[in-house]
Specification:
This protein is of the alpha+beta class. It has one domain: 3-Layer(aba) Sandwich (Aminopeptidase), CATH 3.40.630. About 25% of the residues lie in helices and about 30% in strands. The two termini are about 25 Å apart.
């Protein structure tokens, strides 16, 4: 498994994953499929927004917040296996309270338990280290033991148990930190 930059020539594999019910990272999978069909190059271009120029994000309660700079890479083993994304606030490792972590990832269900998430996070860390952050934070649900193992295997340490902001559901979660300034 390797991380690859999203590209139009790999979109059919993503489309197949969406057709099989995988939705992570795409709030509206039907809209994503429509965009894949109607404007594939634009869909791919939106996945790399290192200046944060895309429109604001609407939170579950309807509040809008500025979009952070970010980009997405795909897990690839000849087919689409999942995605990993990074977002940050330029000039600081801190994130606004409406963004729970720097890195998020998801593996399609039929490719899980192969170490892909662990490998993807391990491959992503040197990429984000180039941005000069001293550390990154990731959050998980309390019961997401698999994700916690992925983070721990990549040098993460538990920082805190906290309650998500009400605008993001208010449920308890765990925050981990991985140092990058090694």
């Amino acid at each position: 498994m390797e991380l690859v930059k999203p590209s139009v020539d790999r979109l059919e594999s993503l489309r197949e994953a969406l057709d099989r019910g995988w939705t992570s990272g795409y709030a509206d999978p039907d809209r994503a499929k429509q965009e894949l069909r109607d404007a594939p190059a634009e869909f791919v271009a939106k996945l790399d927004d290192r200046e944060g120029r895309r429109p604001p994000i609407t939170l579950p309660g309807g509040t809008t917040v500025p979009r952070l700079p970010g980009f997405e890479l795909w897990m690839w083993d000849g087919t689409f296996c999942g995605n990993i994304n990074f977002r940050w606030e330029p000039g600081t490792p801190r994130l606004p309270p409406t963004c729970l972590g720097h890195i998020g990832y998801s593996v399609v269900p039929w490719q899980r338990r192969r170490g892909y998430a662990t490998a993807a996070l391990g491959q992503m860390l040197p990429v984000v280290r180039e941005l000069g952050l001293p550390w990154v934070e990731l959050t998980t649900d309390l019961d997401n033991v698999a994700s916690q193992r992925v983070i721990l295997a990549n040098g993460g340490t538990l920082v805190e148990k906290f309650d998500r902001p009400q605008a993001l559901g208010g449920e308890p979660a765990l925050r981990f930190r991985i140092p990058l300034d090694l």
